[in-house]
Amino acid sequence: MPLPDEAAGGNSVAMTSGDGANGGGGGGGGGGRGHHQGAGKLPRKRFYRARAHSNPLSDSHFPIPISPDEVDLSQHYPRYFPAGEGESRDGDAAAPRIRFADVGCGFGGLLVGLSTLFPDTLMIGMELRDKVTEYVKERILALRASNSGMYDNISVVRTNSMKYIPNYFRRAQLLKMFFLFPDPHFKEKNHRRRVISMQLLDEYAYVMEVGVIPEELLKADPVVKLLSTATEEADHTIARIFPLQAKAINFQNKRRESEERRTSRTRVSEEV
Amino acid sequence: MEDATVEEAEVSGAAEFAPALVAAHPLGHSVAVAVGSELRVFDLKDGSAVSLSDDSGGGSHSDAIRALSFSMNGLLFASAGDDKLVKVWKTDSWCCIQTITSEKRVSAVAISNDGLYVTFADKFGVIWLVNVGQSDGGQGSTDNKPVPIFGHYCSIITSMKFSPDGRFIATADRDFKIRVTLFPKNPLRGAHEIQSFCLGHTEFVSCIAFTCLSQGPSFLLSGGGDSTVRLWDYINGCILDTCQIQDKVGELLEPNETEDSNLAIADICPTNDGSLVAVAIQSLNGVMLLACDFIAKKLSFIKVCLFG
Fold first, then answer.
1. Residue of chain A nearest B193, judged by CA positions
2. Which residue of A has its CA nearest to B194?
3. Are residues B157 and B173 in the same domain?
4. CATH code, domain carrying B87
5. How far is CA B183 from the centre of its chain?
6. Which regions are flagged for Basic and acidic residues bias (chain A) (predicted)?
7. Which of A73, A271, B136, B140 has the largest count of CB atoms under 10 Å?
8. Residues B55 and B152 in one domain
9. Confidence grade of residue B255 (pLDDT, cut at 50, 70, 90)
């Protein structure tokens, strides 16, 4: 039908002109824009390939909102924040806010999947790589064009989430944050490149709402207890605050292991 | 009671010299000046220079001093700099009671209001805390090792201050951010609860200061490389007022000096009763005075005092 296509086409044109300003500020990404598809056609990954790693320590060359009030929601979610009345809606207390954040969203798979599961929740993906962000933008536009009324609640922004999360979100604004990638950085000198670190956990805690998961569920989940006993961050904290206790725990574990080895050996020899 | 004014004057000449620093005792007893690696103290009551002594076994600073701070009650004084040392002094005898080694060069230092802890920050944005309380030396070396309590991610900390009620510690960095963190009763475990971020500066934040009436609300003042002085409600992270310095100073400087980079705020210092704020501006050979109105929550320009 010609009419929905025109409307969709008009929509995507308005979006890309806004995005062009964003992409221009980001520099690079020429490969992505050169292969701009017609409305509704999904972008092809092969034209948006980028290196897997991008340096999070370097200064940014992309525009950053000075504070959460300056995040232009009409660019990301035009259906919820029509461009004309953008100013008045941003200050509105009842206006919807971004509730889910996908840190390091990559090619946008999680966002696209969550969009239909939580159709009334605004979500944003944060990605450091320029080309990959362009791909996700094109993908969202194409999905919006070919599925009218859907995928209006997701968007992506090119940013360094390790430095600029407080610029995008107010205190206790988010319900969920997703970090779906391994982040090993084994060497001690690279530990500061980790997205999950003691320092940054403070900031993630600040932007997340308290009390979202009920107490009983937290108690029932076996992972929660292990967070404070079986993670590197826990080890650092324990060793720093309770050095004697940490040594004692270590000693107990080693003793238990050697005892188990001894008993299993005797059991085997008995069987034989 | 003397008004405590702090200025930071640029040493004229080569850019590799560290700026000279001045700090005044909160009760007006003395003034400390750091020029490069040399620390000099002048006793205002006696009207004479003070000779510093060192009990902690180290020498004087060997490289440029980057930060000075008196504690709120004036009993302790801390100096730190590029030689990776933080020296803590008692202000009655001007004797250095403790020298702490830092892993990196120190860019900011502060003493907690109860005088028990000294915090210092390095180029990577990590804030360290060390216990300088009156425990005897044999308590154990673990008590006196600096502990990282929080950090700004990979950003130089330019200024660090404790709030007047001692509940918060505010830190400013070069990525335009000011973070206000709850300072816990047992800070050795870390200061993980963020109260607010004061975001609004469009350039590096160079200096912050708390200001308050004797009884009443307190606010945070900040100055930055964007030539503005801002007043904040730091509990909620809201900006209350912004004062653009450029227009006020424009006519006083030569036309070629009014580029943005030259009009950065170098330091700010409110008076003890909070009514006046002294602002030091780069390239301005003088001090600007602003009035701080707590009821209207506004900053207003009063005058510029030029030297010479």
1. A202
2. A206
3. yes
4. 2.130.10.10
5. 17
6. 254-272
7. A73
8. yes
9. low
Claim to verify: residue B226 and residue B176 sit in the same structural domain:
no
CA distance linking residue B14 with residue B19, whole number of Å: 11
ipTM comes to 0.85
pLDDT at A229: 82
* Residue A202 known to be catalytic: no
- Regarding whether B157 and B260 lie in a shared domain, the answer is no
Range of the domain at B211: 207-308
Last residue of a domain, one of B144, B175, B199: B199
pLDDT, residue A73, reads 92
Q: Which of B145, B172, B199 finishes a domain? A: B199
Verify that B192 and B214 share a domain, yes or no.
no
Give the nearest partner residue to B153 out of A67, A200, A206, using CB atoms: A200
pLDDT per residue as tens digits for the range A175-203: 999 999 888 888 888 888 888 888 898 99
* Interface check B203 vs A, CB under 8 A: no
CA atoms within 13 A of residue B162's CA, in its CB half-sphere: 25
Residues B195 and B221 in one domain: no
Q: How far is B58 from chain A (nearest CA, A)?
A: 27
Q: Cβ separation of A66 and B190 shorter than 8 Å?
A: no
Q: Which one-letter DSSP state was computed for residue B57?
A: S
pLDDT digits (tens, 9 = 90+) for A91-146: 556 789 999 999 999 999 999 999 999 999 999 999 999 899 999 999 999 999 99
The number of distinct structural domains making up chain B is 2
Q: pTM for the whole thing? A: 0.80
Verify whether the Cβ–Cβ distance A199 to B150 is below 8 Å: yes
A244: buried, middle or exposed (CB in 10 Å: 19+, 13-18, 0-12)? exposed
User: Nearest CB to B150: which of A202, A237, A243?
Assistant: A202
Whether A74 contacts A81, CB under 8 Å: yes
Q: Which two tokens stand for residue A20?
A: 């062009």
Residue from A19, A183, A202, A221 carrying the catalytic annotation: A183
**What is the distance in angstroms between the Cα of A11 and the nearest Cα belonging to chain B?**
33
Asked whether residue B82 falls in the same domain as residue B168, the answer is: yes
Closest residue in chain B to residue A58, using alpha carbons only: B154
pLDDT tens-digit map of A136-171: 999 999 999 999 899 999 999 999 989 999 999 999
Residue with tokens 């194409």: A142
How far away is chain A from the Cα of B153, in angstroms, using its nearest Cα? Answer: 6
Q: For residues B296 and B307, is the Cβ–Cβ distance under 8 A?
A: no
Residue-level pLDDT at B16: 63
* Cα–Cα distances in angstroms (integers) from residue A257 to residues A165, A251, A252, A262, A267, in the given order: 43, 10, 9, 9, 15
Can you tell me the distance from the alpha carbon of A172 to that of B126, in angstroms, rounded to the nearest whole number? Answer: 24
Clarify whether residues B188 and B230 are in a common domain.
no
